[in-house]
């Protein structure tokens, strides 16, 4: 590819948008033509995202009143609150590719969407054209797609941990996933549940049985294999700003050793640079600020536990979105995404 990919980012002033900018400003094939904000419109990107101070002259613009005023772009990323992409995407010029970081286009059944998002799905015809963007399990479809629904952060950690087990056909009985997130999962605007004195020394569960990532996890597990297991998913808030850690408890129909599990995970992920098998337990410290997902598994006969860790804003959002963009434009999947985290 010789010419650069021209990019619009809707919602560039939030945390997801900030990470898209951090990655795309240094992507060799990317050129950012438009980055929008609502309250922050008019400000310099480096004044809002202080980590980018001195690294770009870009300014936030108001989203165009009509998509006819959109500059000529090849792809539009949407990093807006749920419900916004739903009304904007159908009005885009027909050739523009889309990667939506929100939940607006992840759920195929509009009734299920309404139940979990408390919104009417107003673009069901468009929905049929969206491909679920879990890169490691859906590469071929993503590389041919015009529209990609980027997975949720909890869904990414959970599905990458469970994928090899579902594909094995050996899952038996109930699956329990106990997942934890850092506070940046709630976005850039301060709220009671992200306020430092409240959050820094606390730990609590939230949204029992009602988390909006449950239906996309179940839907994609069914797409990957014969999945009809009972699925219990529980979310918790960690006193850290970044990171997701998922502990997945399952049972298999046959006794399995750690070597058997290693075969399953290596079979699915041997060509997946961003999936790393680790000993013992992953640690959010070692995936923070990166696009890696670290996974560890342990067997006790038919009882299996799988742990996974990601950065919610990178592999769980902007990093995976850029990984998908690379596939959609025929680029090497890792382009612009090979960077380590910090130590510690
Ligand atoms: N945070 C995560 O870990 C994570 C992970 C995966 C997916 N996601 C999804 O990605 C999307 C963005 O999340 P985020 O954490 O980046 O949110 P955020 O930090 O709250 O940012 C939201 C962005 O949307 C803009 N915005 C807010 N209300 C708007 C409105 N009514 N109309 C137009 N623009 C509006 C904001 O602009 P102003 O600031 O200028 O008002 C900001 O640029 C969400 O759908 C979220 O569910 C988030």
Task: Give an overview of the whole structure.
The structure is a single chain. With 344 residues, the chain is an alpha/beta fold. The chain has 2 domains: 161 residues, 3-Layer(aba) Sandwich (Rossmann fold), CATH 3.40.50; 160 residues, Dihydrodipicolinate Reductase, domain 2 (2-Layer Sandwich), CATH 3.30.360. Helix content is 29%, strand content 22%. The chain contains 11 helices and 12 strands. The strands form 2 sheets. The protein has a 6-stranded parallel beta sheet with strand order 2-1-3-4-6-5, with helices on one face. Strands 8-9-7-10-12-11 form a 6-stranded mixed beta sheet. Helix 7 runs parallel beside helix 9. The longest helix is centred in the middle third of the chain and has 16 residues.
Stated plainly, the CATH topology of the largest domain is called Rossmann fold
Secondary-structure-based class equals alpha/beta
CATH fourth-tier homologous superfamily of the largest domain: NAD(P)-binding Rossmann-like Domain
Cα end-to-end separation: 37 Å
- CA-atom Rg in angstroms: 20 Å
Number of domains: 2
Beta-strand content = 15-25%
Q: In percent, how helical is the residue content?
A: 25-40%
Across the major sheet, the strand order is 2-1-3-4-6-5
- Which overall shape is indicated by the principal axes computed on the Cα atoms? globular
What is the residue-averaged pLDDT? 97
CATH class category name of the largest domain: Alpha Beta
Low-confidence stretches at least 5 residues in length (pLDDT < 50)? none
Number of extended strands:
12
Assembly state of the chains shown: single chain
